[in-house]
Amino acid sequence: MxxxxxxxxxxxxxxxxxxxxxxxxxxxxxxxxxxxxxxxxFQLDSPPSxxxxxxxxxxxxRHCGLSTEPMFAGSPPAPVNQxxxxxxxxxxxxxxxxxxxxxxxxGGSEHMNVLxxxxxxxxxxxxxxxxxAVAVLPGSTASExxxxxxxxxxxxxxxxxxxxxxxxxxxxxxxxxxAAAYVSDPLxxxxxxxxxxxxxxxxxxxxxxxxxxxxxxxPLLGGAPPANAGIQKVIAFVDREGGQFFQEWSALFVAExxxxxxxxxxxxxxxxxxxxxxxxxxxxxKFFDREEAVTAAxxxxxxxxxxxxxxxxxxxxxxxxxxxxxxxxxxxxxxxVY
Length: 338
Description:
This protein is mainly beta.
């Protein structure tokens, strides 16, 4: 038995797992890729674009349904080779923080911004007819929205806002920077001028106002407003059980090292799902859970958002192999390597 002092440093030591997501380009079908060889450029507290930190997660469970099947030959038949069966890779975990992206990923389909409603509008579960949008002026950036003197008075510090283009009856993916929904027929969305702002990920919170503009606390997720964009106040977020749109994201999960090595799990393509149907050999105890009450200090509890995902295939350019997940391990300094 080895008594090397290096072996004690070979155990990954972590408190929690941190989650990072980046939007897929659904038009070109291109994922965001994490290169472990450039890990020094990936600062966990300020990840590089397009990666977005979504906080700590709990109950991180990875499930691999990839089977290995033997090929038999001879008499009596004996295994002479083996091949891979269907690729079925899934994962699930609990978001401990609630926000636009966390709810969207846990919900799985179109995620709605509840726009401030016209007081005379009829009630709708995802928000009725909203107060008309204010035009965004040229020169606006992802952090500063220029509205002009007078128009800026419709908003106050602390307001949440959605900033995106009017819906002009186009079909296809909609939403600046991040595909938020897919429209196949303008009639399906009632030719709603505000539909893109109802679903867009291009949202922010007003930190302060100036005479002519809004300064946002965080940059808009989808980047600078498009030409002819409008801005509307957001009251809340709402997701729905059901919906036809399938999101797709790239993801990175980091088991941050405390006194040992760091483990990273990179999924180039993840699609949220709410119906897992796992293989019989895989026990998924949280199959039907959407939220979980976590006791903070009785009788006070916090609600954790349960999220589940199907990993989609990615072709590795180094050798053409089809993979679903990359697991990287960064050994602790001066530890053994085997």
